[in-house]
Amino acid sequence: MDKYGILKKYFGYPDFREGQELLIDSILQGRDVLGIMPTGAGKSICYQVPALLLPGITLVISPLISLMKDQVQALNQAGVHAAYINSSLSESQISRALRLAAAGQYKIIYVAPERLETYEFLQFALQVDISMLTVDEAHCISQWGQDFRPGYLKIIQFIRRLKRRPVISAFTATATEKVKEDIACVLGLIQPQVLVTGFDRKNLYFAVETPPKKDVFVMQYVKEHQEDSGIIYCATRKNVETVCEKLRAQGIAAVKYHAGLGNEERRQNQEDFIYDVCPVMVATNAFGMGIDKSNVRYVIHYNMPQSMENYYQEAGRAGRDAERSECILLYSAQDVAVNRYLIENKEQNPEHTWEEIEQIRERDEERLRAMTYYCMTTGCLREYILRYFGEIGHGRCENCRNCAREYEETDVTQAAGKIISGIIECRQRYGINVTAGMLAGESRAKLREYGVSEYESYGSLKELRETEIKTIIQQMLTEGLLTTSNDKYAILKVTAEADAVLRGNRPVIWKRPKAQMNQNTERRTSSARLRKSDILNSKGLELFDRLRALRTEIAREESMPPYIIFSDKTLVDMCVRAPLEKREMMQVTGVGENKYKRYGERFLAVIADYTGGVRQKYYFGDEAAAVAQTAAGQKNRVQKGKEADFYLTNEQAQAFPFAEKYLVVELAEKLNELRDADMVKKISGAEIFRRVQEKGYAGEKMEDGIRKKYVTRTGQESGLFLGMRLSKKGTEYEDIYYNEKAQEMIVAWMKKE
Ligand code: ADP
């Protein structure tokens, strides 16, 4: 059997996802691999498929007991003989497992790194044929990361002791260069095939909300998503207790998890959550490592975490099954203060020198700042995340809160000028609080202590509220007009670019979300898109409920989490195809041979009963689209409904109101008015400009510290030209205009063939 056969037979998938095949082929050719892929991308398949094709055993080193258990359960369900060996087993269980393993009973064995050193394990390893050694969560090897595991350093010694070096495959979701280097070096990978897939988790929708009452927001959200499983992360145990209590008072089956609970209670709550007995988990960040629950539909952060690293890891626990899921961060200014306090009072490693402690503190401060900017930015949230992790040039994603939000633009160039002058007048000595307080003309004790009322700038922005001044400062930081010192004081500094603002050459536009009252409706539209009800009609949903009931029944019988039996995606696909016989059932995504043998007939029976043997249409639209929506690979996904990228039909394009000249934002506005708003996403001015740049018609360059747009020769020939534009406050600056010819060209780009 070849790799495709294995993929279908054991895992029930028709096709590989991006990158999987490359790694599998390399392994099969005997070449080491390093796969850096985000959570949910499908790393396990990359070593499990070759493990089944290689002659000997595959050892998988994994740091977490719960993760091992989950993986082994899933493999056995799929009909692959696998076992784990870790401290959750007794000595005699371990000996038995090793005996069976030596007798060739298992193809894949998960083992904790500490185990490699033991005499018994080594004896076993020397007896058997080990074809591959897989290092999961390989970043644990790096002392730079937060999850360093000393046990991982033992792996290489273990490999050296083996009679024959097996092929080594390493996997992680952490992408920094340092970690990547560490993995390759410490594991001694030989010319590895490295694959870094993008960090983007396309199925996740990101949002930052600042509700006046976080509790109210959470209650409403959870109620609106009663069918779904979700995690609510809180910064403190106390918050966990109160939020969980309130949810329960509303009749919601929520459980809690934090370090203050006893072991047994924690274990029980975790299990109730994983087994879908209680769909909502309220927890501190102590919860989640090694939780592989694939159908978490939302992760809400009740408080802002300390870093983007933490945030992306925690939020990333949503949607591991690649289904649409939401990551919502509830921000309040107080979160920053709490985190700063936590950083300042963090327990220090006694082995660190004073300098190292200072370095770590600075790094933490820096991370907290980046996290805070995430909460403040009015730009695309996904773009922000990806940039933070070193990926550039994605542009707007149209699948985050900020891209969906409409903004009001106010020219605040003058205020920005006063902020810059104020900072300079104070000789760049203060952070955001003192600066904003000084400009607003406040008179707090601390401000008096610094004597800020002596400055000319004192109260120069008193027409604004202090919070408004802070928001403008935050925006100026994101735009690079200001920066902060790299220490815990985060002193505001003026950059070279700020000069252009003072000279009136650069406008500063403050983007504010339009009406706050739209928040809920917008959110609802975006979350409504996630649901299976977009694919299945009412009859389909009824069938889904029946299949789900069967899945729960089987899960109880077998003491397995339901998602290990079949994922939601598999059930939806079953409803779309409504198979009546084995051959048809085998085409459902996620139904492999073994799963069919175990459960296929029971599911067929429910479908036969429901349909009476006559298949009807249980989905919206045409079958091909419905099948594609539930189908395996992300790459096969069709965009449906509201998610389709911007396009115009011929008729719509003909209705375009051509004019003598438009700015790019005006062009976008006119185009958006023509589109079918229910089906098609908006296009932004930035996106149009990106395409214009891509085709070489125009670009941006820095000149004397000012960002300037320019038009190329072909751009001019196509009807683009530079013209002066007046900001609301009367400052002039250059921008690109598009004449009728250029408008025709751009409208043509937008037409769907
Ligand atoms: P990771 O370890 O990268 O976080 P997993 O290996 O847990 O991701 O895979 C995430 C989900 O994607 C699982 O439900 C897995 O079964 C599914 N999956 C992996 N590869 C494929 C594929 N080729 N086709 C369809 N589903 C896949």
Describe this protein's structure.
This protein is an alpha/beta fold and 753 residues long. The chain contains 33 helices and 22 strands. The protein has a seven-stranded parallel beta sheet with strand order 3-4-2-5-6-1-7, with helices on both faces. It has a six-stranded parallel beta sheet with strand order 8-13-12-9-11-10, sandwiched between helices. The chain is globular and about 85 Å long. Residues 516-530 and 631-642 have low confidence and may be disordered. The structure holds adenosine-5'-diphosphate (ADP). Adenosine-5'-diphosphate is lined by residues 13, 16-17, 20, 37, 39-45, 294, 320-322, 567, 632-633.
Distance between the termini: 41 Å
Which ligands occur here?
adenosine-5'-diphosphate
Number of helices: 33
Q: Give the overall shape.
A: globular
Largest sheet: 7 strands, parallel
What class do helices, strands and sheet pairing give? alpha/beta
Give start-end ranges of low-pLDDT stretches: 516-530, 631-642
Mean pLDDT level: 86
Strand content: 5-15%
Approximate helicity band: 40-55%
Number of strands: 22
Give the strand line-up of the largest sheet. 3-4-2-5-6-1-7
Radius of gyration (Å) = 29 Å
